Amino acid sequence: MDKITLLYVEDEPYLARIVEESLESRGFVVHWARDGREAIKLFEESGPDICVLDIMLPVKDGWQLAKEIKAISPHIPIIFLTAKTQTEDLVRGFESGGNDYIRKPFSMEELIVRIKNLLDISTLGKGNTMSINNKDHLEIGTYRFFPERYELHFGDRIQKLSHRENQLLKMLTKNTGKTIQRAQILKEIWGDDSFYNSRNLDVYISKIRDYLKNDPLVKLQTIKGVGYYFKLPSTNDTDRSLPEC
After folding, report:
1. Which of 62, 77, 144, 166 has a CB 3.0–4.6 Å from the CB of 161, allowing a cystine?
2. Which residues pair with 19 in a beta bridge?
């Protein structure tokens, strides 16, 4: 199995060396940059699988760096490392293209789990019940989902997806035929399960349901007090005993 290549941007040398050595000892290939300008050059040279960015950086901050990275590679997963705790700072991070964040100080175990979870989501994993006919799309009932293009097709109609909608639909399809907990979605896509993010999730679930309404055999069920169950025509209904609301 190929090693995970990671771009790590941190201006504090002592911390950076600890993280770099710890990741490399676990089989990662780490490219460390000390500031935003160096990071862009290293990103283009190394072609990483994922980026881990500090927010407070010299030359340009992590938010601006994330925007520039996403302009080059829109689908690269980005994790922010931050000491900031204000909601507006976290929202700004997601709006700039971040997929997850970890508050400092953090453990290496948490960082590695977050990295692997994001990469699993971005590649959609294996073993779900969707039919994969080619490399660029997945069949969701009578729909075709193009995660790399942020598009959902129904016949000749194309629904463009936002970054967050695309993340949510990928996570649901990865867990087709299973009950996925609400808290899991919030933590993996929004970074925490706060009340504000929980209300946002409700909005995005409604949007996904609306996008998929033309195929009555594709169902996104709410399991009261638990989460959601995504059912496709080929999915075995294993959660019949759970109440739908």
Report:
1. 166
2. none
Could you tell me the residue ranges of all domains in the chain?
5-123, 138-231
Reading the block at residue 182, the tokens are 């609400």
Question: At residue 236, does pLDDT exceed 70?
Answer: no
What is the CATH topology of the domain spanning 138-231? Arc Repressor Mutant, subunit A (1.10.10)
The pTM for the full model equals 0.52
Please say whether the beta carbons of 130 and 218 come within 8 A.
no
d(CA 48, CA 7): 6
Residue 176 and residue 233 in contact, taking contact as beta carbons nearer than 8 Å: no
Does residue 11 register a pLDDT over 90? yes
CA distance 38 to 69: 12
Cross-strand partners of 227: 181, 223
Q: Say whether pLDDT at 68 is over 60.
A: yes
> For strand 100-103 and strand 143-146, is the pairing parallel, antiparallel, or unpaired?
unpaired
Answer yes or no: are the C-beta atoms of 35 and 60 closer than 8 Å.
Answer: yes
Can you tell me the distance from the alpha carbon of 211 to that of 47, in angstroms, rounded to the nearest whole number? Answer: 33
5-123 and 138-231 share one fold: no
Cα distance from N-terminal residue to C-terminal residue, the chain: 42
Tens of pLDDT along 127-147?
Answer: 343 433 344 678 898 899 988
Tokens of 55: 């927010």
Closest CA to 119 of 157, 172, 79: 79
Quote the CA–CA distance of 227 and 197 in Å, as a whole number.
14
**Cβ atoms of 143 and 133 closer than 8 Å:** no
